[in-house]
């Protein structure tokens, strides 16, 4: 599916980099929230089954499969994290501008 | 109030994994936080900005010019837009991973439910395609949507997250509210044929069949992926409702075919030329005695410039090109010009139906949370401010 919405993304700050930073920070905050949910779910499921996870986590050693799964997850997270930068590149590629957006508002108001 | 509202499942709704769902809940929760904790600060900021302005800020354009320089406003607007980006992205994740199951479920429902009419020759108007409205990637009618279905799935989940569940487990609050309004205020009016214009995935269309089970109900939209998904969704929920790919400016139904023509948040996604046409088409389609009811945005002249400014953020930051201009249209005059009886044309409020969802024990709809939504005062920038929907009503005599 398409990941970019057609229409110039507005700039809210004096520096465009700050707009991108805000997006990245909130994506990261989201991932922290997801992880907290996930860990909570795991602990609840385990506890229902009488398992003490803390001891198991402390003793865990990662094998090759685990290493690969973790790296794939990391890369997918980075793809989400840098969405806003890819959006800017997509706007550059399709020549979307703030002037073009204003023009669309005026044209549609007129019909 | 903790918002734990949850969307109701149905066969073609994409299923999210644990983490996809958490990501979606985060986007929804972030929207709620911005609305509840950050938005109110804009009022104080405006007082400060207007008192220190060299000349009085008398309209929403002047207010915008002054406010966009303020860091607090920048944070508010940037966070709002980021939440919007995140909610669509998080919904796309689950659609992509669950796509095979969704399309199988959709195929299995092709012969169920009501009629579906698609029109590959229909020209989708520019006001729908020029920008991806409310930043939904691909918009309503993208060629990249190979099965002409994914946009429906994305809209279904994305709108639930956008509305933070305020519109109910099936996102049908607007239709339900107008139906309730009809039952309470238009005593004895029992429509036999009902048309929902700009129905998207049929969220608001289905309550009409539920509340008027003997009526023939049609939903129309210009976008094929939306009406196709609407048909499968309705069939999956057990509704015999008809959907067609048609333009509300010029439908294919005969004169006087309907007793009731409605729309829900359609008008602000049209254009200056389309809106009068839609009013005229509504008049043509109605039998004498029939009603036209459009649930959308109240005009700007009913509110102060600061409120106008807040609402107009959607125009500039959420790909809603007609949002502001639509509010400057004289809807009463448009209804008069279309031929409606002037004595019957009016704006009114249809109260939200959110308490009904709590009463029905829908998942996550606690009585406390539902009351919190229903009892709010009007606050510009919130979803469904004031606990009700603004409706324009007119009767064809």
Explain what this protein looks like in three dimensions:
- The complex is a heterodimer of chains A (111) and B (397).
- Chain A is 75% helix and 0% strand.
- The mean pLDDT of chain A is 89.
- With 111 residues, chain A is mostly helical.
- Chain B is an alpha/beta fold.
- Chain B has one domain (1-397): 3-Layer(aba) Sandwich (Rossmann fold), CATH 3.40.50.150.
- Chain B is built from 16 helices and eight strands.
- In chain B, helix 11 (274-285) links the parallel strand 5 and strand 6 (286-296).
- The radius of gyration of chain B is 21 Å and the shape is globular.
- The termini of chain B are far apart.
- The model of chain B has no long low-confidence stretch (mean pLDDT 94).
- Chain A binds chain B through residues 1-7, 9-10, 12-13, 18-19, 22-23, 26-27, 29-31, 33-34, 37-38, 41, 80, 83-84, 87, 101, 104-105, 107-111, and chain B through 18-19, 22-23, 25-27, 29-30, 68, 74-75, 77-79, 81-83, 85-86, 88-89, 92, 95-96, 126-127, 130-132, 135-139, 142, 144-145, 150, 154, 271-274, 315-317, 319, 321-322, 324-325.
Give a quick rundown of the structure.
Chain A has about 110 residues and is mainly α.
How many individual β-strands of chain B? 8
- Structural class call of chain A reads mainly alpha
| Regions with little confidence, pLDDT below 50 for 5+ residues of chain A | none
Uncertain residue segments of chain B: none
- Give the integer mean of the pLDDT values of chain B: 94
Helix content of chain B: 40-55%
Q: Describe the main β-sheet of chain A briefly.
A: none
Number of separate structural domains of chain B? 1
Strand proportion of chain B: 5-15%
* Global outline of chain B: globular
Query: What is the N-to-C succession of helices and strands of chain B?
Result: HHHHHEHHHEHEHEEHEHHHEHHE
SSE ordering of chain A: HHHHH
Number of helices of chain B: 16
Indicate the radius of gyration of chain B in whole angstroms: 21 Å
Counted up, domains of chain A total 1
Structural class of chain B: alpha/beta
CATH superfamily of chain B: Vaccinia Virus protein VP39
């Amino acid at each position: 599916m398409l990941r970019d919405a057609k229409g110039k993304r507005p700039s809210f700050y004096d520096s465009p980099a700050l707009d991108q930073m805000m997006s990245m920070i909130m994506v990261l905050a989201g991932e922290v929230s997801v992880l907290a949910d996930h860990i909570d779910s795991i602990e609840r499921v385990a506890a229902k089954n009488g398992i003490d996870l803390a001891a198991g986590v402390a003793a865990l050693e990662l094998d090759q499969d685990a290493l690969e799964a973790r790296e794939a997850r990391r890369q997918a997270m980075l793809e989400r994290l840098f969405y806003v930068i890819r959006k800017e590149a997509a706007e550059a590629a399709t020549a979307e501008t703030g002037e073009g957006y204003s023009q669309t508002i005026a044209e549609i108001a007129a019909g | 109030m903790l918002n734990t509202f949850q969307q109701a499942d149905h066969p073609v709704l994409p299923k999210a994994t644990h983490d996809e769902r958490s990501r979606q809940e985060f986007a929804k929760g972030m929207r709620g936080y911005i609305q509840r904790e950050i938005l109110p600060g804009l009022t104080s900021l405006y007082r400060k900005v207007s008192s220190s302005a060299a000349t009085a800020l008398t309209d929403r354009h002047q207010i915008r010019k002054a406010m966009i320089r303020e860091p607090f406003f920048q944070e508010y607007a940037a966070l709002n837009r980021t939440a919007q980006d995140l909610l669509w992205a998080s919904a796309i994740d689950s659609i992509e991973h669950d796509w095979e199951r969704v399309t199988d479920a959709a195929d299995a429902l092709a012969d169920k439910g009501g009629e579906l009419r698609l029109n590959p020759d229909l020209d989708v108007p520019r006001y729908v395609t020029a920008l991806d409205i409310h930043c939904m990637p691909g918009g309503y009618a993208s060629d990249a949507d190979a099965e002409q279905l994914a946009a429906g799935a994305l809209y279904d989940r994305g709108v639930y997250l956008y509305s933070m569940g305020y519109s109910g487990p099936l996102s049908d609050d607007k239709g339900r509210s107008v139906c309730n309004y009809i039952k309470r205020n238009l005593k004895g009016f029992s429509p036999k044929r009902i048309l929902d214009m700009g129905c998207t995935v049929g969220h608001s269309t289905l309550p009409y069949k539920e509340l008027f089970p003997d009526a023939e109900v049609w939903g129309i939209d210009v976008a094929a992926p939306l009406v196709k998904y609407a048909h499968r969704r309705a069939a999956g929920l057990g509704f015999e409702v008809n959907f067609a790919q048609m333009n509300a400016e010029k439908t294919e139904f005969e004169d006087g075919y309907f007793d009731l023509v409605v729309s829900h948040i359609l008008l602000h996604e049209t254009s200056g030329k389309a809106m009068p046409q839609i009013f005229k088409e509504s008049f043509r389609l109605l039998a004498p005695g029939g009603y036209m009811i459009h649930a959308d945005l109240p005009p700007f002249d009913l509110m102060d410039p600061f409120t106008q400014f807040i609402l107009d953020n959607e125009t500039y930051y959420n790909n809603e090109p007609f949002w502001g201009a639509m509010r400057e249209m004289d809807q009463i005059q448009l209804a008069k010009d279309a031929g409606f009886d002037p004595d019957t044309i009016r704006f009114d409020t249809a109260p939200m139906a959110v308490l009904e969802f709590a009463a029905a024990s829908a998942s996550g709809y606690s009585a406390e949370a539902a009351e919190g939504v229903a009892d709010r005062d009007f606050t510009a920038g919130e979803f469904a401010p004031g606990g009700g929907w603004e409706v324009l009503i007119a009767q064809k005599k």
